[in-house]
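Good day; I would like, with your permission, to put a structural problem before you. The record follows directly beneath this note:
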Amino acid sequence: MRFAILGISHETNTFSEVPATYEKFEEALMLRGQEIVKQYVDAEYTMTGYLQAAEEFGFEAVPLMYANTGPIGTITKDAYDRITAEMFGMLRDQGPWDAVLICNHGAAVSEEFPDMDAEFTRAVREIVGPEVPVGMTLDMHSNISKETIANTDVCVVWRTCPHLDCRQRGHKTAELIYRTVKGEINPVQYIEMVPMLVNIVKQFTGQDPMKSLVDDCVEANERKGILDTSIAEGYPYSDVEEMGMSWIAISDGDAESAKEAAKWMSARAWEKRADLNRPVPSIEEALKMADERYVGPKPAGVENFLPDDGSALAENVPSEHSHLGPIVLMDVGDNIGGGSSADSTHIMKVAREMGIEGYLQTLYDPEAVKAMVAAGVGAEISLEVGGKTDNMHGEPVLITGTVVNIDDGPYEETRPTHGGFKFYDDGQRVRFNTVDGMTILLTTNRSGNTAREQMYSMGINPEDYRIVVAKGVSSPRPAYQPIAAEIIIVNSPGVTSADLDTFTFNRRRIPLYPFEDPDYQP
């Protein structure tokens, strides 16, 4: 029994000015054959779930090709054509197959195909034919169309944000496809696409309103004959028709029960649409709150509660030391996991104006890194940093201070992380301490803040700082919630701003809440 494994994983921010070229995929991650096994066999990603299921159930997993690049702009036609030509060539040439397992993100847009994931699954189905079961596991931020569901037998979505259950959900997909091949089940899917979205600042599944919607999803999965249920939060920075929330139910041969389960879940969410789109503090408000609420550093080795079983994060469970530690500000407008520039200076500029010390953040700035490396460790210099990618993420800021440490960039994280990744690479990077009490970690690669080892590996203890800025919304939580006294989400400007009215949408559905108030009856 042979299962092909392949995929293109990309979260496309159609408002980003950085195109996803073939070279960007090559620079980030393009794996073939056993390279996939080496990368993911001991990780916590979807691929890991596929590989573990193969070992458990006894089918042969045949990894073909996997391409992934960080969330940036639209995938070029050249990139899609070249990657799929090789990938689909492998699928054709190395068959026949008993099944196919796809590892896509679910919010991909190419120059030729606005719904790239639907086109990808259509092509896979065309190659293997209608009788070969096809399973797909998607990110919770996927924009899922009816076409994608029609092209697959099983579509399973992660249930946690930040993403801590990727391996488990991948395993579930593989299990359902294996049982389908064995003739034990006959999966029938239904997708409900309610005309609404959930703002990025409300997508954390560890607290309401999203927590209760995930609970509803789990409850619906317990219905008789239901094989799996999924809730997709959607990705609001892709200007496509299918952008928004969706619910999938998979039944064993009963289309009506799948439809009823999906509609029940979506109706519950429709009642909470206002709560799913409430605003969060501005930069000034958030910095003032953080400055006033900070108590002191967290003692070494003490962490707040963080479950390690793949369940949703708790929101700061009280403990003896939960009032201590840094205040972590989530920089929504520079959400690198959403396709932002990684070099926003908006929060940093206001913090300097307020005279805040004990401040820590990262900045993508290859030019500044080059200058600091040339100056050398111990050098005292002044230079402008950040705000160089575009005109949406602030102006460069002049800083003066000392080059403390220089490093090549790779590091490995053994703690829980968003997406279950272990291996990271900031590119050449520099720790820089400013004369006005800030520590800036400057990187050559666009890097998120999803692993604390990013700081530890540079001799930085974030526990010792007053305010830590994490570029993201939910993805930094597994890394920073265990040491944070409090997490404050900040409504900052940028290409991933929470203010969706700042973007011009040309392809989205109309009406769509909260842009409009649809007359919708679940």
Notes: The two ends are 42 Å apart (CA to CA). Residues 2-277 form a domain with the Rossmann fold fold (CATH 3.40.50.2300). The longest helix spans residues 77-93.
